[in-house]
């Protein structure tokens, strides 16, 4: 196992004010989990070219954040805390096209890489009954003869048994991605199964490459405009002298959960099917449970993200609502929130 050092500049307890964030600082929360009976939240964060992991006391907001690790060469992404072993599994990215799973003790500012290879490994989660089992999603990186990245393979769910060292691919389906592994109190595996979008399925012209920056800006604008329409009923900008007669926006370039979907079209389709809480997630994005017998069962269609509480309640997002599914199958709206992709119960 490869051992990594840390930058000592952030050792000890710090507060946000100690970071001296400027108006143009680029910051993002990359991953979140709970520790110590949910009294503390542990999170990974990126601030400009630095990334780190910190712990915040939820009951005492005045208590400064506890520093776990910090690095200016690696980026820490999604995390999974093991309450039985006090270990943290985290997705660590050291290069642009390679992300691996690492394990660390939250009291020790160092980590060990446990997955290697030309792949994107992410979203680690520990078994609840067996704390020596770790699930994570993985996608192989495709390269041409010159070593250039040309695409990614479908995402699969892997299972790593630390007691035996055995690595098993437990969920993979031809033509589909398997993402966001979670487990319930009986260690049944849950994940989202969605159609795989390959960049190699179609030929790309030189003009398309030239228009990539424009398409990214356009996608961001479409996201903001859809948000405005959903909340105000009106478009972000008028098109001509009579906005009421303007053409409805085309949101085909809206990017959700790493995939491009037509949110406006999907919402209309879901409403037409009579869904009680219609969202913008495609019905092909299914929340699936994989039992110990290997049988797959679709729990819910049209799911962007989800989590499972300690009492086995499923909390999921369909892009417009946060909804709770109790063990008896009843659904209840927790909150109306747009565009939520990741949930931590």
Describe the fold and architecture.
The protein has 345 residues and is mainly beta. It has a domain at 2-201 and 281-321: 6 Propeller (Neuraminidase). It has three helices and 25 strands. It has helices at residues 206-210, 212-232, 263-272, and strands spanning 2-4, 13-14, 27-35, 40-47, 50-57, 65-71, 75-82, 87-95, 98-105, 111-113, 119-126, 133-143, 149-152, 156-161, 166-171, 176-183, 189-195, 254-256, 259-261, 286-290, 296-301, 305-308, 314-317, 322-325, 331-335. β16 (176-183) and β17 form a beta hairpin. It is globular and about 50 Å long. 31% of the residues are buried.
List the helices and strands and how they pair.
Layout: E1 2-4, E2 13-14, E3 27-35, E4 40-47, E5 50-57, E6 65-71, E7 75-82, E8 87-95, E9 98-105, E10 111-113, E11 119-126, E12 133-143, E13 149-152, E14 156-161, E15 166-171, E16 176-183, E17 189-195, H1 206-210, H2 212-232, E18 254-256, E19 259-261, H3 263-272, E20 286-290, E21 296-301, E22 305-308, E23 314-317, E24 322-325, E25 331-335
Antiparallel strand pairs: 1-10, 2-6, 3-4, 4-5, 5-6, 7-8, 8-9, 9-10, 11-12, 12-13, 12-14, 14-15, 16-17, 17-20, 18-19, 20-21, 22-23, 23-24, 24-25
């Amino acid at each position: 196992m490869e051992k990594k050092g840390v930058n000592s500049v952030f050792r000890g307890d710090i507060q946000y004010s100690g970071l001296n964030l400027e108006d143009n600082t680029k910051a993002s929360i990359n991953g979140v989990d709970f520790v110590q009976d949910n009294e503390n939240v542990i999170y990974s964060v990126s601030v400009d070219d630095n990334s780190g992991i910190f712990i915040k006391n939820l009951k005492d907001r005045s208590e400064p954040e506890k520093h776990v690790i910090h690095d200016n060469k690696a980026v820490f992404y999604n995390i999974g805390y093991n309450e039985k072993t006090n270990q943290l599994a985290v997705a660590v990215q050291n290069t642009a096209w390679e992300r691996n799973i690492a394990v660390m003790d939250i009291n020790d500012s160092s980590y060990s890489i446990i997955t290697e290879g030309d792949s994107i490994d992410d979203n680690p989660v520990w078994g609840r009954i067996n704390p020596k089992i770790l699930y994570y999603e993985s996608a192989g990186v495709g390269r041409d003869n010159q070593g250039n990245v040309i695409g990614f393979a479908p995402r699969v769910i892997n299972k790593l048994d630390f007691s035996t060292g055995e690595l098993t691919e437990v969920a993979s389906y031809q033509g589909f991605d398997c993402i966001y592994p979670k487990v319930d109190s009986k260690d049944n595996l849950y994940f989202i199964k969605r159609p795989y979008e390959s960049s190699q399925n179609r030929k790309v012209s030189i003009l398309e490459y030239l228009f990539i920056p424009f398409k990214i800006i356009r996608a961001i604008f479409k996201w903001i405009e859809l948000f405005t329409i959903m909340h105000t009923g009106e478009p972000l900008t008028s098109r001509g002298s009579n906005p009421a007669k303007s053409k409805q926006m085309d949101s085909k370039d809206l990017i959700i959960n790493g995939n491009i979907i037509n949110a406006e079209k999907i919402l209309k389709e879901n409403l037409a099917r009579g869904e009680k809480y219609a969202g913008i997630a495609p019905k092909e994005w299914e929340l699936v449970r994989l039992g110990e017998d290997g049988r797959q069962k679709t729990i819910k269609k049209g799911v962007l993200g989800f989590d499972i509480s300690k009492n086995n309640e499923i909390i999921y997002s369909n892009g417009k609502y946060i909804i709770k599914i109790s063990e008896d199958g009843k659904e209840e709206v927790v909150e109306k929130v747009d565009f939520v992709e990741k949930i931590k119960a």
